[in-house]
Write a structure and sequence with these properties.
It comes from Cyanoderma ruficeps (rufous-capped babbler). This protein is of the alpha+beta class. Helices cover 25% and strands 37% of the residues. It has 35 helices and 70 strands. The strands form seven sheets. The protein has a 30-stranded mixed sheet that branches.
Length: 1711
């Protein structure tokens, strides 16, 4: 029994111990607890050897309990110290004045509620600043703890100064000493309700699906409590907190800045007298959660002590303008930011007073108005409204300030009320531009205000809804568009019903609206998807599936649908619908969009990418082969998983059926950075009927007989109607961060007005536009109660002073056409001095209105130039002349600077800020660095500064223990122009510590481009550039050579001009030097078996050298052939290269043999072709390569082809060196170089010269010769100095070798012999695929080019690796690079890039657009007598845009390329093609007269043209009159028409009507329509809209079931008594009984069927498929009075007989 009692006693003792341990600390009444308190905040990089900034606050804290939950707190003797410099050498420096300021508020008594370890409400004096209250919160936050009585380790969500965050507790008990340690840690990135403030980021939406580890700001805090317990309870003896915020702007693990905060609260003792209760009333200040207030007013700029706002505003504005006038733009931008901050605290009266002081001073107005907009306060917004209402601002000032004000203003109820008054302001309504800006801005304000609200107040959206309703009732299309765009900016689900009224899918009344309104309605749903994703996705999917809508509307719906990131079922359903999609434009667009998404790498789009990958497999490759005629989506994207950053650039190309080129182009740039993906920038262009501007506009088509005939004809074609009219229109809009900020809609009248204004434009004045580009701030509390801010703000100042005039003669007429510009003379005088300055300030640290501490980053960009010139353009004379002034003073054209400081500022000592550079000054590099530098300096005396001809380059670089220092300066002189330019680079950063982007930014950087004058012997008066094309080019060079003499030269014979020009250009010396080089090279080649390497050969020779001749070619250094030392060098280098080549090739097939067999070239062209084929094995793959080459025999009369077969290892074409070298050699024989000037005059001359006051002009002249004869196309260009017999020259030559090969060369230096580069482009086959090879060879180039090439070469392997290319180290020719591109499919290609020491290659590279090709076509079948590939590529492309329709016997090929067989009923005219636009310009009809003969009837203007065959001869009638055979025939009407003979038939050309060419020979009929007629034709030839799936459209738009029904629908009915055609179209009743659900029905065809007229019987029939509409048998529906049923549903498809020939015996005709 005693043992049991003893056990129970021990148990009770244990329970009591646990009981005391599990209770929270308590403060006993009647006592005052004395604590020492210290908090330190440091800002640092991960490396502590760099500068740091921080603050330390020490004080004594007294706490007394006055009731059950109420406690009093006093902070005594607060002392604030600042640290700025290097730890630990630089100490904390006390700030006595700031300490006194803080002590004034902290020494007061505070009250707080504290129960069970939780801090409740906090009470403070009424006049206590929020900063002091937050510091008290930092102390009380250390008392916050949650103890669970049954657990020692647990997790929960706990409230604190930073909000409610995830917290983990660990309790350790030391029962022997009656002590316990409580540890808790908080994850500050995992908070339910976090105390955070984001300013300036309303349009940036965080990514909800991004992982936490990808966030660039991470934070945690740990607390360690030590308590002791006894019988009286638990007391807190000490508390320590450590908080770390790690900021990694680029998401680099090692590239992070850190903020460390440490608190320590230690119990010193207790005393009996409690804290006396305050005599004044304390105000409740909320809970422990941090309060944001005063720090929001302080921008991340130097502190401003605001005492007298009126005076400070005036002085700041004056200083700002003075700095700007002095050119101190940096100081002006800093003052501008101060002005913005002052405006934020100014009252309306103060702003009005300042306005009255400077309203009449133009230099002050732009700064004042821009600062008002950037302030974004309620009073500033109201002030701007009053000034616009009072018309105190001009149109342009209002246009600039309105968008800035609406997007920078802080949205609240007051500012929204003011914004609504803008909408009804009469002054705003007067100017359309202002009205657009205001409505779009109001929509953006609503979006910001309702961004985080579930429901947006209806009264905010009502103005936008009212505008949409009023615009619909008035039929105002422009207001409809404006309302939809503003609603789209607002992005609220309450607007969905309004938007649906503009979509025909949901409202039948919307069908009559223009397509652009439908597009705007779809785009208005984009932002609404953020709040109601399911509803928007459902609407958009219905719009996309609605095939009755215009293709561009459905394509925009596709864009919006994929922006909602649909799931796999939706994507696959979309793909399935494309299998039966009738519009190829829509199908092509959707397919290419899915394909681009499938290739994306952005993590947020992974699910969508996977779904699109499956979808494109469902569709197959059919849609992948569509050409450029169809709509596409082009996407370029990349993502770095290391930095969690990426970008997507998409271009949506939306073609219209009526255009050959995209009518709608939307380009969008989206950025994914800091896990905030959003549309950064979006620009869209829409065009409509722009081809009208390029055509004759004064042709009265409506007055001609053809117009009336087509109107009457339309009545006989059931359901036919002309296309709606379209006026030329161009519209564009721009969106930034998803908000549309401006759009413009330009119609024909606006274009005419613009051209009229430009024809007599004069401008003069000075402009300044300062803009606060952005202000983004992210503020979170620290445990100490101070705010940690990441702030970024940017200021841009754009300035321009201009004085210019533009005159056009003759003046532009009212009916402007682009063709008029070719007959004009333009004189321009301009004196423009633009300047731009951009200043960005970024801050990380403590930012309050009392003090600042942290890092400050400054980045500046400046651009400055002066453009004073006179330009004269004479389009008729083909002359351009520009004159400008030379450089008279040093100008900094552009500069970029950045620097980082550790800063410490406080309000009490504004003028004595502490600022430390990141690196310590005067640091001595370590010994190894010194030794390395001294060694380099001794071995390379000129390494610090290298001077070269006309260029100076100095470089200095070293690396120390705390930073990398780098400087470089490069200068280039242009003495003939009297100026020089220099590029200076200077960098000092911490990248040597850690190679991250953040460390590269930490430091100083400067890059600038300077233009300065060069002192010459004579002053330069002006610089002149003149370009003369055409027949006067030669005279211009002769005139310049005479230094402006006015001797007559026009009457000189051509030989004299030719001789003078040849003498001026000193061509003889060039070709003499070239011949010497060729003879010397030939002798060396004979010695060593290499080919001639000259570059000036006849066009029939290949201008390219092989690697085996590169050593011989290098002899063009100016030395004589007799130099035996040079010969030895050449011989030795040849041996070395040969050994390398043999060793390199031995790794491949050692048995590779090279056999060449000659064969006759009778099957090819006269020059002979050589086919080189090789097999190579690389990466276990087999490739067969062949290129077609040309070689000319030494004998001129006998020419042979050469077939070579080579085997070697390697993937690229370069491995076929034995064969390829043969056909790529420079073949120079005994023929002399040819100068085109001997037989051709120059086609272009350009002269750049400096006009001196006391000296002849100096400068350069350039002459261009061209020879465009078939098979001999060639260009030569010569450049030289215009002063004296200078030996420096530039020579370029390019020629077409044959239809597969182009070669060129560039040489410059003394007589064009110092440096030379050659290139060649050839087409052929590579591994059985069509391919193109580009080869570049440099024999000798300047050192600057070699240096640049080496620099590029160093980056190439890494760049190729990042882009996914494979690499192989393989030695090749040392002066040669080769690129081979093989088209393996219309959307993929293989690429091989061969460099001297590296081969880069890749296979199956996706192309953004399909490339039409025919890989199955053998190369030998290509026409060798022509060089179509190079000379006619542009012409072929233009011809491919034109529509071609052909009728030959029973085979018809439409404009869209659809072929079908159709036998025309005899003697019945068919509408072959007609203009279906409102102009109704032409009609072409055709009828079959016999089995193989046709006749046509063409109607143009007032002409009726008949072409037919009679007695075996082609006959021509015009207006019923037989025309004699003396063709050509030309019309006299306003529109031109030409009829002429061609081959065996007649040709009609009427380009003004849209018929480029019509050919007829009785058997064959060909029509070529102009490309601007696309989508505007109809008839059997089709609509010319590329919609091949909808080719069989009848006049009513119904899609016929087969080609026969389609052809019958275009037969023109005639009077059966007067015409020869006895057929007409009638609705028929189905003869086969049909029943539905056991109910008898009768069925009628929905489209008429061809039948013989009454009184005639069919003798020939043909079966056709027809759709039928069925009704109950007892229905009243009958064929009587029913001309058409195409609007009825199609219930069944059946085959019926259509009549094609009739026999008429009982035809009743009137007498």
């Amino acid at each position: 029994m005693k043992g049991l009692i003893l056990a129970l006693a021990f148990a009770l003792v244990g329970v009591s111990v646990i009981f005391f341990f599990l209770t929270e600390p308590v403060f006993h009444m009647g006592k005052t607890y004395l604590y020492s308190y210290e908090t330190i905040i440091l800002h640092e990089l991960t490396d502590r050897s760099l500068a740091m900034a921080g603050v330390r606050l020490t004080s004594k804290v007294e706490i007394s309990r006055v009731s059950h939950s109420d406690h009093l707190l006093q902070i005594r003797s607060p002392k604030l110290e600042e640290h700025n410099g290097f730890w630990p050498t630089d100490p904390f420096i006390p700030s006595s004045k700031l300490s006194e300021t803080i002590a004034a508020c902290l020494s007061q008594t505070f009250k707080f509620e504290y129960t069970e370890g939780r801090v409740g409400s906090i009470f403070a004096p009424e006049d206590c600043p929020i900063l002091c209250t937050n510091l008290v919160r930092g102390v009380l936050n250390m008392l916050q703890m949650t103890i669970k009585k049954s657990q020692n380790v647990y997790e929960l969500q706990e409230a604190g100064i930073e909000g409610i965050c995830h917290t983990r507790y660990i309790i350790q008990d030391d029962s022997k000493n009656n002590r316990a340690t409580i540890s808790k840690s908080k994850d500050l990135t995992n908070c339910q309700d976090k105390a955070v403030k984001n300013l300036g980021m309303a349009y940036i939406r965080p990514c909800p699906t991004c992982p936490l580890k990808a966030r660039s700001i991470k934070g945690t805090v740990t607390f360690t409590y030590k308590v002791k317990y006894d019988d009286s309870g638990v007391s807190l003896t000490s508390a320590i907190s450590d908080q770390v915020y790690q900021i990694s702007p680029f998401n680099e693990p090692n590239g992070a800045a850190a903020m460390e905060a440490r608190q320590e609260l230690s119990l010193v003792g207790t005393k009996r007298p409690p804290i006396s209760a305050p005599t004044f009333q304390l105000q409740k200040q909320g809970s422990l959660r941090y309060h944001f207030s005063g720090e929001l007013l302080q921008m991340p700029i130097p502190l401003i002590r605001i005492e007298n706002p009126d005076l400070q505003l005036t002085e700041t504005l004056r200083q700002l303008v003075q700095n700007n006038e002095k050119g101190a733009t940096k100081e002006a931008s800093a003052k501008f930011l101060q002005l913005v901050q002052l405006f934020r605290v100014a009252t309306l009266n103060q702003i009005e007073s300042l306005w009255l002081q400077f309203v009449n001073k133009p230099p002050y107005r732009p700064w004042f108005l821009s600062a008002i907009c950037a302030a974004g306060a309620t009073d500033t917004f109201r002030f701007l409204k009053e000034k616009i209402h009072d018309e105190k601002l001009n149109i342009w000032e209002a246009a600039v300030t309105l968008p800035l004000a609406f997007h920078f203003v802080t949205t609240n109820k007051q500012t929204l009320e003011i914004a609504s008054t803008f909408l009804t302001c009469p002054q705003i309504q007067k100017v359309l531009m202002h009205r657009i800006i205001v409505y779009l801005g109001y929509g953006s304000m609503v979006n910001k205000y309702c961004a985080h609200a579930l429901l947006c107040p209806n009264e905010l959206l009502q103005p936008l809804h009212d505008l949409a309703t009023e615009a619909t009732s008035r039929g105002d299309v422009k207001d409809m568009s404006l309302a939809l765009k503003a609603i789209g900016n607002a992005g609220e689900p309450a607007s969905i019903k309004r938007i649906l009224k503009f979509l025909p899918t949901f409202s039948s009344a919307a069908a009559s609206l223009p397509n652009r309104i439908h597009v705007d309605a779809v785009l208005a749903l984009r932002k609404i998807a953020r709040k109601d994703l399911a509803k928007v996705r459902e609407i958009i999917l219905q719009v996309f599936m609605d095939s009755t809508l215009a293709p561009n509307v459905r394509m925009v719906a596709c864009v919006v649908l994929f922006e909602t990131k649909p799931a796999l079922p939706t994507v696959t359903a979309l793909a399935s619908s494309l299998l039966t999609e009738p519009s190829l434009q829509v199908a092509s667009f959707a397919y290419s969009h899915m394909k681009s998404l499938a290739a994306g790498r952005i993590p947020q789009l992974y699910k969508l990418s996977a779904a699109c990958n499956i979808a494109i497999k469902i569709l197959g490759p059919r849609l992948d082969k569509l050409s450029y005629r169809y709509s596409k989506v082009v996407q370029i994207s990349d993502y770095s998983s290391q930095y969690q950053a990426g970008a997507i650039w998409r271009v949506y190309l939306m073609n219209s059926p009526s255009t050959m080129f995209p009518s709608d182009i939307i380009t969008k740039l989206s950025c994914t950075w800091a896990v905030m993906p959003d549309s950064f920038l979006q620009v869209a262009f829409r065009s409509q009927s722009l081809t009208k501007l390029m055509r004759k506009q004064n042709i009265p088509f409506a007055e001609y007989d053809t117009y009336k005939t087509l109107k009457e004809l339309g009545k006989s074609l059931l359901g036919w109607k002309e296309l709606p009219p379209e006026d030329p229109r161009v519209s564009a809009y721009i969106k930034v961060l998803g908000q549309e900020i401006a759009f413009v809609d330009i119609d024909k009248d606006a274009i005419q007005q613009m051209m009229m204004v430009l024809s007599r434009l004069g401008i003069s004045g000075q402009w300044t536009l300062p803009v606060l580009v952005g202000e983004m701030r992210h503020i979170v509390p620290t445990v100490a109660g101070l705010p940690l801010e990441l702030g970024l703000c940017g200021v841009m100042v754009a300035q321009a002073a201009a004085d210019g005039e533009l005159g056009v003669s003759p003046p532009v007429s009212d009916n402007f056409r682009a063709s008029q510009l070719w007959e004009t003379k333009t004189d321009t005088h301009a004196d423009i001095r633009p300047k731009a300055y951009f200043h960005t300030i970024a801050m990380m640290g403590i930012n309050t209105q009392y003090f600042q501490s942290g890092f400050e980053f400054h980045a500046e960009f400046s651009a400055n130039s002066t453009m004073k010139f006179d330009a004269r353009i004479n389009m008729k004379e083909k002359n351009l002349k520009i004159e400008t002034l030379p450089c008279h003073q040093e100008i900094e054209l552009a500069a970029v600077r950045s620097e980082v400081y550790a800063i410490s500022r406080n309000m009490e000592e504004v003028d004595s800020e502490k600022k430390s550079h990141i690196f310590p000054k005067g640091e001595i590099p370590n010994i190894s660095d010194q030794l390395l530098r001294s060694t380099e300096g001794s071995s390379k005396p000129g390494s610090w500064k290298v001077r070269k001809p006309l260029a100076t380059c100095s470089k200095e670089a070293h690396q120390s223990s705390t930073g990398r220092f780098y400087t470089r300066r490069f200068c280039k002189k242009f003495e003939s122009l009297g100026c020089s330019t220099c590029l200076s680079l200077k960098s000092h950063n911490s990248a040597s510590l850690r190679n991250t982007y953040l460390h590269k930014l930490y430091g100083e950087f400067e890059a600038k481009i300077i233009l300065k004058p060069v002192h010459a012997d004579a002053d330069i008066d002006k610089i002149q550039l003149e370009v003369q094309a055409g027949s006067k080019a030669a005279l211009k060079i002769i005139e310049v050579s005479r230094s402006g003499s006015k001797e007559e030269g026009e009457t000189s014979p051509y030989e004299d001009i030719q001789a003078k020009l040849k003498q001026i250009l000193d061509i003889e010396n060039v070709f003499t030097a070239a011949n010497k080089t060729r003879r010397r090279t030939k002798r060396i080649n004979r010695e060593y078996g290499t080919a001639d390497t000259g570059l000036w050969a006849e066009p029939s020779t290949a201008h390219f050298s092989s690697s085996s001749s590169s050593s011989a070619a290098s002899s063009a250094d100016g030395r004589e052939p007799g130099n035996h030392h040079r010969k030895d060098e050449i011989r030795q280098s040849g041996k070395q290269r040969g050994s390398k080549s043999s060793s390199g090739s031995s790794s491949g097939s050692s048995a590779s043999s090279r056999a060449c067999s000659s064969s006759s070239s009778s099957q090819e062209d006269h020059s002979g072709d050589r086919h080189c084929s090789g097999d190579s094995e690389y990466s276990n793959q087999q490739y067969h390569t062949s290129f077609t080459c040309t070689e000319i025999s030494l004998r001129k009369k006998s020419q042979h082809g050469l077939t070579c077969i080579g085997h070697a290892s390697g993937f690229t074409i370069i491995i076929l060196m034995p064969c390829l070298c043969l056909w790529s050699l420079f073949h120079l024989f005994s023929l002399k170089p040819k100068f085109l000037g001997d037989s051709k005059p120059p086609t272009l001359a350009a002269v750049l010269r400096a006009i001196h006051r006391n000296k002849q002009p100096t400068g350069l002249q350039l002459v261009l010769y061209t020879d465009t004869q078939p098979k001999r196309w060639r260009i030569q260009m010569f450049g030289s100095s215009i002063t004296g017999p200078s030996r420096w020259k530039l020579c370029a030559d390019a020629s077409v070798i044959n239809y597969r090969k182009v070669a060129g060369s560039l040489k410059w230096g003394k007589d064009c012999q110092d440096y030379q580069v050659a290139t060649q482009i050839a087409t052929g086959k590579f591994a059985a695929y069509p391919a193109m090879q580009m080869k570049l060879e440099w024999l000798k180039v300047p050192s600057i080019i070699r240096t640049t090439a080496r620099w590029f070469y160093s980056f190439l392997p890494g760049a190729a690796y990042l882009l996914g290319f494979s690499q192989r180290q393989q030695l090749g020719p040392s002066h040669q690079a080769t690129l081979v591109m093989a088209l393996t499919s219309p959307r993929t290609c293989d690429v091989v890039f061969k460099l001297p020491e590296l081969t880069i290659y890749d296979t199956a590279i996706n192309l953004p657009l399909p490339v039409p090709s025919h890989p199955a076509t053998p190369t030998s079948t290509l026409p060798s007598s022509d060089w179509k590939v190079f000379s006619q590529a542009t012409l072929s492309f233009i011809e491919s845009l034109k529509g071609h329709c052909t009728v030959f016997q029973n085979k018809i090929t439409t404009f869209n390329g659809v072929e079908f067989m159709y036998s025309m009923p005899a003697n019945c005219y068919h509408v072959l093609v007609q203009d279906c636009s409102p102009e109704l310009k032409f009609l072409v009809m055709v009828k079959r007269e016999s089995a193989d003969l046709t006749a046509i009837n063409v109607r143009l203007a007032s002409h009726v043209i008949d072409m037919y065959v009679s007695n075996g001869l082609i006959q021509l009638k015009i207006n019923g009159v037989q025309t004699p055979r003396d063709l050509p025939y030309t019309s006299n009407s306003d529109a031109s028409m030409l009829i002429s003979s061609e081959k065996k038939g007649l040709t009609l050309k009427a380009p003004d009507y849209g018929i480029d060419k019509l050919y007829y020979d009785g058997h064959r009929l060909e029509i070529q329509a102009a490309f601007w007629m696309a989508g505007k034709t109809c008839g059997i030839c089709g609509k010319y809209d590329a919609e091949i799936e909808r080719e069989y459209q009848t006049p009513s738009g119904y899609l016929a079931k087969d080609a026969v029904s389609f052809g019958h629908s275009w037969i023109i009915s005639e009077d059966p008594c007067a015409g020869a055609c006895k057929l007409q179209r009638q609705l028929v009743k189905s003869e086969n009984p049909v029943s539905f659900e056991k109910t008898a029905t009768k069925c009628f065809s929905v489209e008429p069927v061809l039948r013989c007229v009454k009184g005639c019987s069919p003798i020939e029939t043909v079966p056709v498929s027809v759709g039928f509409h069925c009704v109950p048998a007892d229905s009243a529906l009958s064929l009587d009075g029913q001309p058409r049923l195409d609007q009825k549903s199609e219930d069944v498809v059946s085959s019926v007989s259509a009549h094609t020939a009739c026999s008429c015996r009982r035809q009743a005709c009137p007498a």
